Structure formats: C-alpha cells, structure tokens
From TrEMBL:
Entry's EC annotation: 1.1.1.2
GO biological process: alcohol metabolic process
Catalytic activity: a primary alcohol + NADP(+) = an aldehyde + NADPH + H(+)
PANTHER family: ALDEHYDE REDUCTASE
Keywords: Metal-binding, NADP, Oxidoreductase, Phosphoprotein, Zinc
Protein name in the entry: alcohol dehydrogenase (NADP(+))
Length: 355
C-alpha cells in the first residue's frame, strides 16, 4: 500500500443521516501530516455499534459535512511526521476510537489520555485547527503517534481490528477494577462488546457469568469461557446471586435493563460499569438500590495506550480469538444493518477494496 496521492483519501461516506445506509465512494482531503502524526494505509476496519449511532444521527448532529465512519483500523504505516519515534514505514499497526488529544493535561500525562477534555475521535470530529478527521472505511487515516499501536505478530489483522475499540472498551474497566485470577465478573449483554468482555475476563483468570434477556446466546457464552449464564427475563433471576460479583460490566445498549436487581448481585463497595451507551439514556435508577451493598454506578471510555498494549499482549499470549465475520468494505451497509438488527455474531470486519 502506498501513501495518499495529493494528500487525498478515498472512503465510503454517508452524506445524510436520513440515508445512513447509502454509502458513497468519496474522495476527500486528509488533515495535515503534522510532526507527531502517522499515516496508515487501511487494510481492514471493524464495524462498531458507535458507527450506527453516529451515521443515523442517534448520537446527535454531525460535526462534519459527511461521515466516513470506522474506528477499528489495522494497516501499514506509509508516512510518519519528523518527530515520530516509535514507527517506521511498512510497520503493521492499529488505530482505535481516538486519534488525538492535547498531550499536556494531567490526564494525558498520567495514562488517562482517553479522558482528555480535548479529544479527537475516530471520525465525525475536528482537530483543534479545524481540519476534519474521517475514519477507517477508507484507504488512509492519520493519527497522533500516541494513538497508534503496534500489532503483535501472533494476531491476524482481521482479528486485531475490533480489539482496538470493542476489545479495549471492554478490557479497560476489567483491569481498572483489578480483575485477575479468582475474580468474579458479571457481563450484561452478549454482543460485540459483551463477547470481548467475556473473552478478556477469562483470559485474565476470572470466573465469568453472562446476563442476557433470554437463553438464546447461552451456548455461545459457555463456548467463550463463561461458567454461568443467567436469563434476566426470568423473575427472581438475581435471588441466588446476592453479593456475588467483584465487578459487573454492562455492554448492553438498552434502557430497559433490570438494573436494580443486577445491583444486588454486587459485593460490598463494588461497581456496575456501563460501556454500552443507549441513545435514550438510563432512567429510574434510585440511590436506595445501591445503599444495601454500598455499590457504585460508573462508566468507562475506551482505554489508554498502556491498556491497549497490555490487551494486545494478552491476546497474543493467551490466543484470544474474537468471533468475527469478514466481508468486503463495499458491503458496509449490510454490516450496519446487521448491527441495527442485532444479528451480528459478534463483530464484522471490513477488508479493503478501494485500492
């Protein structure tokens, strides 16, 4: 793969949120190659629920005139800024859901750059100088060096891709809550994020219980390594699980979860962490529901570089294998429709077909 010609990339763009399944092949200008930035020629890109929420307008108005979505990119380095030290042309790398930050605040300088108040996201976003940044359903992307990750040799590109958002988003709350051998982890929802939460919690040595509305995905959960599966549609599902879990990671994007019941299954002073983000938000949660065991509600946003590298190393060593469906990038609309319909098992990866 070569560097962009005339600083232009070509991508599958959506130009109207009312027609979010109408992807058009579009040429556009990349942001400048600043001294700390890396240009990556895209080999493949994962499809995330965030892609659907964004292009459909579910998360609000667009910041850019059109959107080239995709923030789970694996490809080859084709250009580096003069201050880039860690990467060379030809190296295989990944880029996730964030491509830039201020680099100076206390969060950026303390392994929390994913919480920088001035982030540049994976798409539908602008750099501080006003230039648009587009995503990975394309030939090329650019990112600051901090947000580019070397991919271990033992992980195929199509397997690494969705780890860079779906995987990292699920991995970060696990390690930040001290999950390891002997930990008991609950995972709510078994979709793209949930399946990663199971895979990585198991790889970290935890005992995992999956909560889902019905038994439809029970067999899959057990094959992924979960020890127990609980259907929350059954009344009283929580009765035998009081104060059981060290952390619950909620990956579901539903506002109709039985949260009060789930909270009772946390041990004292433990946390229920949202990584799923329903468009309509979560309502009717009372402080009384958390008082009995002193539990906490929280959330989590992707992960930092340190966690990304730790996750990739763990995936290589433990041979973590995501459940993926690989299709050409021109079938992006089919992939988004599958996310909307909930038929993905469990992540879709788009392979490059624009070059």
């Amino acid at each position: 793969m070569s560097a962009p010609v005339n600083n232009q990339a070509t991508g599958y763009a959506v130009k109207d949120p009312k027609k979010y399944l109408d992807f058009e092949v579009t040429k556009y200008e990349l942001e400048p190659l600043e001294d700390d930035r890396v240009t990556v020629a895209v080999e493949c890109c994962g499809v995330c629920g965030s892609d659907h929420h964004t292009i459909s307008g579910g998360w609000g108005p667009w910041e850019t005139k059109f959107v080239v979505t995709g923030h789970e990119v694996v490809g080859k380095v084709v250009e580096v800024g003069k201050n880039v030290k860690q990467f060379k042309v030809g190296q295989r790398v990944g880029v996730g859901a964030q491509v830039g930050s201020c680099g100076k605040c206390k969060w950026c300088t303390h392994d929390n750059e994913n919480y920088c108040p001035e982030p540049v996201h994976g798409y539908n976003t602008k750099w501080p100088d006003g230039h648009d940044h587009q995503g990975g359903y394309s030939t090329h992307i650019r990112a600051q060096e901090l947000f580019v990750f070397p991919i271990p040799e033992g992980i195929p590109s199509v397997e690494a891709a969705s780890m860079l958002c779906g995987g990292l988003t699920s991995f970060s709350p696990l390690v930040r809550h001290g999950v390891g051998p002997g930990s008991k982890v609950g995972v709510v929802g078994l979709g793209g994020l949930g399946h990663y939460a199971v895979l990585f919690a198991v790889a970290l040595g935890a005992e995992v219980t999956v909560f889902s509305r019905t038994d439809a995905k029970k067999e899959d959960a057990l094959k992924m390594g979960a020890k127990r599966f609980v259907a929350t549609g059954e009344p009283g599902f929580e009765k035998d699980l009081q104060r059981e879990f060290d952390v619950i990671v909620c990956t579901a994007s539903s506002s109709k979860l039985p949260i009060d019941a789930l909270l009772t299954t946390l041990d004292v002073n433990k946390s229920f962490v949202f990584v799923g983000m329903p468009e309509e938000g979560i309502k009717n949660i009372t402080s009384q529901a958390m008082a009995g065991n002193g539990c906490s509600l929280g959330s989590s946003h992707i992960g930092c570089r340190t966690e990304a590298l730790q996750m990739l190393d763990l995936a290589a060593k433990k041979q973590v294998k995501p459940w993926i469906n690989v299709i050409p990038m021109k079938q992006a609309a089919d992939a988004i429709k599958a996310v909307e319909d909930g038929t993905v098992r469990y992540r879709t990866i788009l392979t490059q077909d624009l070059v």
